[in-house]
Amino acid sequence: MMRRLAAASIATIVMLALAACGGGDVDQPVGRIQAQQMPVAATAVETGRALDLAIEGDGQFVWRTGSGQTVYSREASLGLGADGLVNRSGARLMGLAPGSSDAAALVPLTVPELMSSHATTGLSLEFNLDSRLSVTDLGFTPRIDFANAGTYNHATSAEVFDGNGVSVALVVYFQKRADDQWNVYVNANGATVAGTADDPQPVVTLSFLPDGSTPSPSSTTLNVPSSVNAQGMTTQPIAGLALDLSRATQYGSFFSVTDVRQDGYAAGRLVSLLVESGGGLTAEYSNGQRADRGRIMLARFAGTERFMPTPQGWQQVSGAAPVITAPGLGLNGTLRTGALETDAQLRSHTGH
Description:
Elements: H1 2-20, E1 45-46, E2 52-56, E3 60-64, E4 70-73, E5 76-77, E6 79-81, E7 84-86, E8 92-96, E9 107-108, E10 114-115, E11 122-130, E12 154-161, E13 167-178, E14 181-188, E15 191-192, E16 204-207, E17 219-224, E18 238-244, E19 249-251, E20 256-262, E21 268-275, E22 280-285, E23 290-296, E24 298-300, E25 306-310, E26 313-318, E27 323-325, E28 334-337, E29 339-340, H2 343-350
Parallel strand pairs: 11-18, 11-19
Antiparallel strand pairs: 1-29, 2-5, 2-28, 3-4, 3-8, 3-24, 6-7, 8-9, 8-23, 10-21, 11-20, 12-13, 13-14, 14-15, 14-16, 17-18, 21-22, 22-23, 24-27, 25-26
Protein name: Flagellar hook protein FlgE
Pfam family, one: FlgE_D2
InterPro entries: Falgellar_hook_FlgE_sf, Flagellar_FlgE/F/G, FlgE/F/G-like, FlgE_D2
């Protein structure tokens, strides 16, 4: 008898809880919760938390539960989980993969906390060499002494990275060989890239037109040797590094370097995730790199569909499939960060 009373009490409590949160009517037995319309929007509450998202206008966030079900909700208090961006119930936020535009192919949005290093494959320099200067290649051996500024005319530096993301300090030296001709030398952490320590050699010799334009050749390839950097770390060789010199000039004006570009970087940790009003996600890492992490997409319903409440969101049980578009497109609202519109607020607002 006591067991029957306990079971009846638990059933009553569950039924009352479901009725209080919009999960069904109190006169419906447990397991027969009535399907209902999706609650309408309520006023968002400011939280100041960057990964709390509210929708200003129409639309529902799309979620994938651990069992593979698709559910919808206007609540998005996001966290980073092993499966990507998740809500407080562990459901994964769905959207477009980076570079995708297919709204029919939503995927769980992921944001890696670590970015792997990337070895430099290309270095591009934009600079002007002063054509008024005297020749410094006097034909002796060695042709250049990196410690003697009298054996070259100009120098500039650039940081590149090996396959482990370890910094390699390159210094590029420019030595005037003759009118309109310049030898280019490179050392890496103090070690010459071409030739030997006792007799460094140019990696390329540039020839300019009489008007100071159009260097030839405009590029070369470097095989950067292993060396020891300023932090005492032994660096890996960097083979086949493309050195682009096509933007070089030789005018009668002071030496200047106006641009240095290279595509390598060290490993980095996630420092922030930027969410655009249109749903775009950009991850920022401690190595200064940014990465596109896709786009949040919203679902919009006609209003005649029926849904069942679940702990993760609202599961559609009847009606037409939703229209999936990005925030701000079609009739969808835009995203607002630092604010939250909870399901509890929605139920209260609609009287459930």
